[in-house]
């Protein structure tokens, strides 16, 4: 079951070739099937993985811990309050220490440069568990979920991402689809499109992979004929709460509603969200925004989130299977 990724980092999607990305998905599907049939074999016994979290996480942390445990590896979680990282010790020194003790390091935080610096100095694989720029382990889960809900090959799958597209998820959806030769639509206000450099790189890649790239402010054009509609929170971790009002004003027309799903013209369209999602009033932030704006939901309505179109919990489960594939591919003998 080995792949050719032993010792390799994953700090952004474009660290992988299209073939490597696809082989990781195949490995994840095989590991998922092994788990389901009770035939999983431990390939990472004695391995150790450090998990650095400068930002909060439910899925990513749990997915790494559970995937490692299933495969016989041990994990240590570090957060800024419980370690010297960034306060008393530089990223470079931390990388060299962790690289002596651990077989791999996961990093979640704001700066992509920190993930890159860890990877440059750790001497072991470093995985990006989300930065402000990219969320590559999420993309592995999302594309695995697409393969499970659409029988066509990846290069004949179309998806649209609606919402805040200049954040990690928008960037990652754009380059991942470009890498895999897919039909990628970004529907967002121009102010919130991915940076020009990211769009240029995606277009350059598309020219070699056959991907179709559309950036539009028009929701109808964005979603027409798509197999998947995806969104993300409108204000990401690390952004100040003051931006909510402006963001809501900009993004209200891009909320995923049943009308948006109908506009795909595809009865079988599926809804994706990396989660957490503001689809109801179940959180303090949502209730506070409801008091100010009168909105029952933000980026996706509860109707869509709870509908048969929604595959968000398959997607969340697939974080674990795909992260397991990444660990096995980079760390197993
Ligand atoms: N989707 C995702 O990365 O979730 P967490 O923030 O809970 O890890
Ligand atoms: N864009 C979101 C993704 C959360 C998984 C954030 O960075 O907060």
Name the descriptors.
binds norvaline, alpha/beta, globular, Rossmann fold, 333 residues, 13 helices, binds phosphoric acid mono(formamide)ester, 2 domains, five-stranded parallel beta sheet
CATH class of the largest domain reads Alpha Beta
* Helical/strand content category: alpha/beta
Order of helices and strands: HEHEHEHEHEHEHEHEHHEHHH
Question: Bound small molecules, which ones?
Answer: phosphoric acid mono(formamide)ester, norvaline
Question: How many domains in all?
Answer: 2
CATH homologous superfamily placement of the largest domain: Aspartate/ornithine carbamoyltransferase
**What is the tally of beta strands?**
9
The percent range for strand residues is 5-15%
The radius of gyration computed from the alpha-carbon positions, rounded to a whole number of angstroms, is 19 Å
Label the CATH architecture of the largest domain.
3-Layer(aba) Sandwich
Strand order of the largest sheet: 7-6-5-8-9
- The backbone outline, from C-alpha atoms, is globular
Question: Alpha-carbon distance between the termini?
Answer: 10 Å
- pLDDT < 50 runs, ≥5 residues: none
Detailed description of the structure:
The chain has 333 residues and is of the alpha/beta class. It has 2 domains: 135 residues, Aspartate/ornithine carbamoyltransferase (Rossmann fold), CATH 3.40.50.1370; 153 residues, 3-Layer(aba) Sandwich (Rossmann fold), CATH 3.40.50.1370. 44% of the residues lie in helices and 13% in strands. The protein is built from 13 helices and 9 strands. The strands form 2 sheets. It has a 5-stranded parallel β-sheet with strand order 7-6-5-8-9. A 4-stranded parallel β-sheet has the order 2-1-3-4, sandwiched between helices. Strand 6, helix 7 and strand 7 form a beta-alpha-beta unit. It is globular. Bound molecules: phosphoric acid mono(formamide)ester and norvaline.
């Amino acid at each position: 079951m080995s792949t050719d990724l032993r010792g390799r980092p994953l700090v952004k999607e474009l660290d992988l070739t299209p073939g490597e990305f696809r082989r990781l998905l195949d490995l994840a599907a095989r590991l998922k099937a092994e788990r389901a049939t009770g035939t999983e074999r431990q390939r990472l016994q004695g391995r150790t993985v450090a998990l650095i979290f400068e930002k909060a996480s439910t899925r990513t942390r749990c997915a790494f811990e559970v995937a490692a445990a299933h495969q016989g590896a041990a994990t240590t979680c570090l957060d800024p309050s419980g370690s010297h990282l960034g306060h008393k010790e530089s990223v470079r020194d931390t990388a060299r220490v962790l690289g002596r003790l651990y077989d791999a390091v996961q990093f979640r935080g704001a700066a992509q440069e920190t993930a890159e610096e860890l990877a440059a100095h750790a001497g072991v694989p470093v995985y990006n568990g989300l930065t402000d720029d990219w969320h590559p382990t999420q993309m592995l889960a999302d594309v695995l979920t697409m393969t499970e809900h659409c029988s066509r090959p990846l290069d004949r799958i179309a998806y649209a991402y609606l919402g805040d597209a200049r954040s990690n998820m928008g960037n990652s959806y754009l380059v991942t689809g470009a890498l895999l030769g897919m039909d990628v639509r970004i529907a967002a206000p121009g102010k919130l499109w991915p940076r020009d450099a990211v769009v240029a790189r995606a277009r350059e890649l598309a020219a070699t992979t056959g991907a179709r790239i559309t950036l539009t402010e028009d929701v109808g054009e964005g979603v027409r004929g798509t197999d998947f509609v995806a969104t993300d929170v409108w204000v990401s971790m690390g952004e100040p709460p003051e931006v909510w009002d402006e963001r809501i004003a900009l993004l209200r027309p891009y909320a995923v509603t049943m009308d948006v799903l109908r506009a795909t013209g595809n009865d079988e369209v599926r809804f994706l969200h990396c989660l957490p999602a503001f689809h109801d009033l179940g959180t303090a932030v949502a209730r506070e925004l409801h008091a100010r704006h009168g909105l029952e939901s933000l980026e996706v309505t509860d109707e869509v989130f709870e509908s048969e179109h929604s595959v968000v919990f398959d997607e969340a489960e697939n974080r674990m299977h795909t992260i397991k594939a990444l660990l096995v591919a980079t760390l197993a003998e």
